[in-house]
Fold:
Amino acid sequence: MLVAVALRWDGLGGLRVGRLSVTVSTPAGELSALAVEQIVCTVDAATPGRAAQVTVVGAGQSVGPRTCSR
Structure:
Protein backbone atom coordinates (compact mmCIF):
# COMPACT_ATOMS: atom_id res chain seq x y z
CA MET A 1 0.00 0.00 0.00
CA LEU A 2 1.34 3.43 -0.94
CA VAL A 3 0.38 6.26 1.39
CA ALA A 4 0.76 9.93 0.52
CA VAL A 5 1.21 12.19 3.53
CA ALA A 6 0.55 15.88 4.18
CA LEU A 7 1.35 17.53 7.52
CA ARG A 8 -0.26 20.44 9.36
CA TRP A 9 1.39 21.81 12.52
CA ASP A 10 -0.90 23.43 15.07
CA GLY A 11 1.72 24.90 17.40
CA LEU A 12 0.85 26.34 20.73
CA GLY A 13 2.63 29.68 20.58
CA GLY A 14 6.17 29.46 21.85
CA LEU A 15 5.54 26.25 23.74
CA ARG A 16 7.43 23.13 22.78
CA VAL A 17 4.30 21.03 22.39
CA GLY A 18 1.79 20.95 19.60
CA ARG A 19 -0.62 18.96 17.53
CA LEU A 20 0.11 17.59 14.09
CA SER A 21 -2.41 16.31 11.60
CA VAL A 22 -1.13 13.82 9.03
CA THR A 23 -3.42 13.40 6.05
CA VAL A 24 -3.05 10.07 4.28
CA SER A 25 -4.53 8.91 0.98
CA THR A 26 -6.26 5.89 2.50
CA PRO A 27 -9.04 5.72 5.10
CA ALA A 28 -7.30 6.25 8.43
CA GLY A 29 -9.48 3.67 10.17
CA GLU A 30 -8.23 0.97 7.79
CA LEU A 31 -4.58 1.45 8.75
CA SER A 32 -3.08 -1.19 11.01
CA ALA A 33 -1.92 -0.25 14.49
CA LEU A 34 1.67 -0.76 13.27
CA ALA A 35 1.14 1.58 10.31
CA VAL A 36 -0.26 4.30 12.59
CA GLU A 37 2.63 3.83 15.02
CA GLN A 38 5.17 4.10 12.19
CA ILE A 39 3.56 7.30 10.89
CA VAL A 40 3.41 8.83 14.38
CA CYS A 41 7.02 7.93 15.21
CA THR A 42 8.30 9.16 11.82
CA VAL A 43 6.60 12.51 12.37
CA ASP A 44 7.89 12.63 15.95
CA ALA A 45 11.45 12.01 14.74
CA ALA A 46 11.08 14.87 12.26
CA THR A 47 10.12 17.31 15.03
CA PRO A 48 13.08 17.03 17.45
CA GLY A 49 12.75 18.78 20.77
CA ARG A 50 8.97 18.88 20.54
CA ALA A 51 6.41 16.65 22.19
CA ALA A 52 4.07 16.10 19.26
CA GLN A 53 0.58 14.69 19.41
CA VAL A 54 -0.20 13.27 15.98
CA THR A 55 -3.62 12.63 14.49
CA VAL A 56 -3.77 10.53 11.32
CA VAL A 57 -6.60 11.64 9.02
CA GLY A 58 -7.82 10.09 5.80
CA ALA A 59 -11.08 9.70 3.87
CA GLY A 60 -13.15 11.35 6.59
CA GLN A 61 -11.75 9.10 9.33
CA SER A 62 -9.20 9.93 12.02
CA VAL A 63 -7.01 8.04 14.47
CA GLY A 64 -5.50 9.80 17.45
CA PRO A 65 -4.11 11.99 18.74
CA ARG A 66 -1.21 9.68 19.50
CA THR A 67 2.35 10.08 20.68
CA CYS A 68 5.28 7.86 19.74
CA SER A 69 5.69 5.08 22.29
CA ARG A 70 9.37 4.47 21.51
